[in-house]
Amino acid sequence: MKPATTQLDRVLRAWPQLRGHFRSRQQISEAELLAFFQASVPEVTADAWPMVRQGLLRSQLLHEVAPGLLSFEPPRTGSSLKPVLQPEWLAVWQQLQAALALPLGCLWSTRWLQPFLPDLPSLLVVEVRWAELNQAGRVLAVSSPPSGPVVVRAWQALSPVRQVRGVPTARLEKMLVDAALMPELAPAISDAALAAALSVLLTRQGLSKPVLLQYAARCGAEARWAALLHAATAPD
């Protein structure tokens, strides 16, 4: 039996262990995957990894999402992200709606970005008018805790949003720009990761360059996003 075949066979035997180790994940970086196999299957060295990776892709146990990012599921098709509002997120929105006098801004979750930026922590973001920012924080502080962390931030006027079940939710362009600026999220996102995500989103998810740059300009980040778009679309 050829060495590459032996290595792949041992990887396949370790596959249930791998899925159990990453049971809450649908996507994983190549670095994480290689580290797991090097610990569990010593035959999978850095030199052997390219052949093992190719075998896993051919068998469709893994699917390439972006450079350095692999998925256990085939890539979705479609022109845009279709966010799903969890009941507990709607409960937070309705609670703030009832407690605040001014209209709320929008709601979004980092879970909608995690297929493309898997290192993002799970976070619900609710945007309210600046005048009621402190009040919104007090409302949530004394309420029943939601199932995950919530950040309340000031609403940016003219933000790109769309309605989902009657709730204004951030468009993809806004989520990307905001995530890269928010202190709770920015440390988990490198420019390389953003460029890799853009290379996928521009071809598969109908990301609008003009909308992205217009919103980035309002947030003082147009130069950064122009450079990221160039990096994402420039030929290798």
**Mean model confidence by pLDDT:** 84
**Contiguous runs where pLDDT drops below 50 for at least 5 residues:** none
Taking the alpha carbons of the first and last residues, their distance comes to: 37 Å
Report the biggest beta sheet as strand number plus sense, adding barrel if it closes: 3 strands, antiparallel
What order do the helices and strands follow? HHEHHEEHEEHEEEHHHH
The tally of strands reads 8
Number of helices: 10
Strand content: 5-15%
What general form does the structure show? globular
Spatial ordering of strands, largest sheet: 1-3-2
Structural class: alpha+beta
How many whole angstroms does the radius of gyration measure? 21 Å
Helix-residue proportion: 40-55%
Pfam family, one: DUF6577
How are the SSEs ordered, and which strands pair?
Elements: H1 3-13, H2 15-21, E1 27-29, H3 30-40, H4 49-58, E2 63-66, E3 69-71, H5 87-99, E4 106-109, E5 124-128, H6 133-141, E6 150-154, E7 161-164, E8 167-170, H7 172-181, H8 191-204, H9 209-218, H10 222-233
Parallel strand pairs: 5-6
Antiparallel strand pairs: 1-3, 2-3, 4-5, 7-8
Helix pairs in contact: 1-4, 7-9, 8-10, 9-10
Pfam family, one: DUF6577
